[in-house]
Design goal:
single chain; mainly beta; 11-stranded mixed β-sheet; 5-stranded mixed β-sheet; 5 helices; 30 strands; globular; binds copper (II) ion
């Protein structure tokens, strides 16, 4: 699909219409030709047919642009903290079972936080805050909760060593030392991460700061600043989640798209600038997202604001990735679209006008890591190992420390893959991309990242400053964020030590 530019793919999404979103989208080429010739003429038919042949290697429940979006987008509630005399903010999370209306024939059993029907409340933190987050496990099995993208001490990171036994509470305690960003939280119990997230346990974290360059951006949660948590799901005939692990190179790919747990949603927004906080919380699927009816302007990557806004035809988000985009909504609806699923989310003007804007020319100063700063080089190679997946020839071992990093060092990591598609994710640190296949990163990839797509055709070189926290005993993780691969062993552990 990468050979086709954005507008061509969007015509594909417009041209292929299915009568029922619960049925498969791959129609005969004759049907497509008839419909598209009538609509847009012969040139578009040729384009659509090519797009069809490339894109129809799989079947999904595609939402056509001319199918009404009739379900309001669910917006996860904001979790309000209790603040003590010293200004410390206390947040309470409880993970447990629930039931959610996925528009199937009956309610679906789910996992969630704080009694929501699915997913969890959004945590909104501010740079400089001291926070204490308690997580109580009301499931009947062990889990953990990890703060993905957060720069926190290893013992507060919520990785696979921070077990929460059923009926017990684990407490994370940290200062927010990083700039504004969209992060997320999710279980990270080794071997069960994919299933716990798939059943619905995940939520968004928004970090805000006093960056004056961002003061005119839309920032009213749920009004012009919208969380967009994208997940694919399959359902059994009994309307239950059809969880599966796929040991193949792409992991498990499902056929129905959900946004904040809603299928085929719309959201009412003001005219003017609207911010979408995109989070790919899927098990294994990568999305190529674009916008119909307006420009798509990317303002932030995993770790926060880009140097400047970037207008893009499409943005790829792999599992674990976040991207913040701005859409200037006009008099009629705009839509977030994906090249496989069609429309993801309709943005429907509600008659009000956003007070946000204008869009600033400059958002942040990205202090680029130079070659002269590098003190250590490492290489990581992703490959299949037997029935599992490993890094540098070994499967995950909870009792083995794979790397030891010295506090204060700046490291350059070169990442390659032998087979399959992977997403390199590292805990604690936000890195910079130095090169992809020897080329410097594009502006939209030149900010801070904690996850990056890797496959046999891409050599990715990143650099990271390890200058915040050290712990001689508790490791951080780095792993593939295709959750099938992670649970099957594609994870290793590093210590950051102060010596
Ligand atoms: Cu992988």
């Amino acid at each position: 699909m990468f050979g086709l530019n954005g507008p061509l793919r969007r015509r594909f999404a417009l041209g292929v219409r299915t009568a029922d979103q619960r049925h498969v989208a791959c129609e005969s080429l004759t049907d497509i030709r008839r419909r598209v010739v009538v609509r847009v003429g012969l040139i578009f038919w040729v384009v659509s047919a090519v797009a069809y042949l490339v894109g129809c290697g799989e079947t999904v429940n595609q939402v056509a642009m001319d199918t009404p979006a009739d379900v309001p987008l669910s917006i996860p509630e904001l979790l309000e903290p209790t603040v003590d005399m010293a200004g410390v903010a206390y947040y309470d999370l409880k993970i447990g079972t629930s039931r959610h209306d996925y528009q199937q024939t009956t309610l679906t059993d789910t996992y969630s936080y704080n009694g929501m029907s699915v997913l969890g409340p959004t945590l909104r933190l501010k740079t400089g805050d001291s926070v204490v987050i308690s997580v109580t496990n009301e499931l009947d099995q062990i889990t953990t909760t990890h703060w993905h993208g957060a720069d926190v001490p290893a013992e507060d990171d919520g990785g696979p060593h921070s077990l929460i036994e059923p009926g017990t509470t684990w407490v994370a305690d940290f200062d927010v030392i990083q700039p504004a960003a969209t992060l997320w939280y999710h279980p990270h119990y080794h071997g069960s991460t994919a299933e716990h997230i798939y059943r619905g346990a995940a939520g968004m974290i928004i970090i805000e700061d006093d960056n004056p360059a961002a003061a005119t951006l839309p920032a009213t949660y749920g009004v012009d600043d919208i969380p967009v948590i994208i997940q694919d799901r399959d359902f059994t005939e009994e309307s239950q989640l059809d969880f599966a692990i796929d040991a193949g190179g792409r992991g498990n790919q499902d056929r129905t798209l959900t946004v904040n747990g809603t299928i085929n949603p719309f959201v009412e927004v003001p005219r003017g600038l609207v911010r979408l906080r995109l989070l790919n919380a899927s098990q294994a699927r990568t999305y190529n997202l674009g916008v119909e009816g307006a420009e798509m302007i990317k303002i932030a990557s995993d770790g926060g604001y880009l140097a400047s806004p970037v207008v893009l035809d499409e943005t790829m988000i792999a599992p674990g990735d976040r991207a913040e985009i701005i859409i200037d909504v006009g008099e009629s609806s705009a839509a977030l679209v994906d090249d496989t699923f069609g429309r993801v989310l309709e943005l429907r003007p509600n008659g009000s006008v956003s007070s946000a804007g204008p869009l600033p020319d400059k958002l942040a100063t990205i202090d680029r890591i130079s070659e002269s700063e590098i003190t250590v080089d490492r290489t990581f190679h992703f490959d299949k190992i037997g029935d599992g997946w490993g890094i540098n020839g070994v499967l995950m071992d909870m009792n083995r420390i794979d790397e030891t990093v010295r506090l204060g060092d700046t490291e350059r990591w070169t990442i390659t893959a032998e087979t399959g598609r992977h997403v390199f994710h590292v805990h604690q640190t936000q890195f910079q991309v130095l090169s992809i296949n020897g080329e410097p990163p594009q502006p939209e990839e030149a900010g801070w990242e904690d996850s990056i797509f890797v496959d046999p055709g891409r050599e990715v070189v990143i650099a990271s400053r390890f200058n915040s926290y050290a712990d001689n005993d508790t490791p951080y993780m780095y792993h593939c964020h295709i959750l099938d691969h992670e649970d099957l062993g594609m994870m290793r552990q590093f210590l950051v030590i102060d010596e």
